[in-house]
Amino acid sequence: MTKRASFYPTNDPPTIGPDTPLSTEPLTATLAFSPTVEPDIHTDEPDAPMTIREMLEERERRELSSLATLSANTRGRILPLSPDDMRTDFQRDRDRILHCKSFRRLMHKTQVFLSPEHDHYRTRLTHTLEVAQIGRTIARALRLNEDLCEAISLGHDLGHTPFGHAGERVLQRCYQESFSHCQQSLRVVDKLEGLNLTYEVRNGILCHAGDTLADTPEGVIVKFADRIAYINHDIDDALRAGILKPDDIPAELCEVLGETHGARINTMVRSIVAESREKRTVAMEPEIYKATMRLRAFLFERVYTNPEAKGEEGRAEALLETLYRYFVDHPRELPDEFSATIEEEGIARAVCDYISGMTDRYAINLYKSLFIPRVWGQKEA
Question: Of 307, 300, 354, which is closest to residue 330 (Cα–Cα)?
Fold first, then answer.
């Protein structure tokens, strides 16, 4: 069985919804950890003042739910790390994610519409920020750990490919059928960025999509927040693009969830809070969950497979597949930072990491520089 954290005092696992299957597969072995190293704080003075971190940890113990994941109780990091005197472990993780290169690149990665020119379409970065906002709102209402929710939210898509799920499909064909952005996001924080995050954040990143549930209630919240965010903002973007009209959204779903973008988010968030409060699971009310999943199915039918919205995906996939095969055949042209990966894990792994880390525009410009002839004397853009 999947190992779960000790905050569930019964043997019942947390639930996502009435129809969601639970995976019995163990988590990937990369979720190893070592305890955080506490410095020697013994002193001859009996009343040594508490650090800011210790005061924050004490406030968590005093104010959060008994089901919350306390920063002081983290299962640790891959490499031992002395505590900070000002920030809790989950605050440090959030900051490390926020300041890494992979987070900045999310600004130029597709959410639904490939390389949108207009200013108001979502990108992978704005999606991430909306997930963090929704997750923190739910966590605060349930008196769970907001900092842990925020850290998982900010890191959950760091390994996402350019051109959205089109890029993911290319790497599944060319590199490995089991490739997923969840596992790649964990690889980013562990190996490519070397952030040395806590077990709880890494576990939440790995389990934010798919059937496997995170070991913490905060991780389960992020799974919900991710779904709430993309269902609603993808509808909003589709309306903005003219792919959908307001009347296209099934009336019976609007009656249950709400007529507007904000109303639907509010309904879903309040449903989770109402169903989960004072309970030992994080779940959505069955009626709201059913309507939410029907709205998601509507999106797949009308937007995610719509030729007008996704018509360029075939070209994007061909572009990435060409780049992948080129660098497999010309590994010396990979950036120097991938040399160690080539030696330790092979050329294909290094090319996969390189491709998955690209932004949409970087991939397009790289393709142009490799395969599109320039006019003589014209400088490269």
Answer: 354
How far apart, in whole angstroms, are the C-alpha atoms of residue 337 and residue 194? Answer: 13
- The values of phi and psi at residue 198, to 5°, are -70, 160
pLDDT one digit per residue (tens) for the chain, 381 residues = 333 333 333 333 334 343 333 333 333 334 544 555 555 545 556 678 999 999 999 999 999 999 999 999 999 999 999 999 999 999 999 999 999 999 999 999 988 877 666 788 999 999 999 999 999 999 999 999 999 999 999 999 999 999 999 999 999 999 999 999 999 999 999 999 999 999 999 999 999 999 999 999 999 999 999 999 999 999 999 999 899 999 999 999 999 999 999 999 999 999 999 999 978 899 999 999 999 999 999 999 999 888 877 778 999 999 999 999 999 999 999 999 999 999 999 999 999 999 999 999 999 999 999 999 986 656 665
Structural domains of the chain, ranges and CATH numbers in brackets? 52-158+193-310 (1.10.3210.10), 313-371 (no CATH)
- Residue 195 φ then ψ, to 5°: -80, -20
Burial class of residue 295, CB neighbours in 10 A (0-12, 13-18, 19+): buried
Cα→Cα distances 220→10, 101, 339, 371, Å: 17, 26, 37, 44
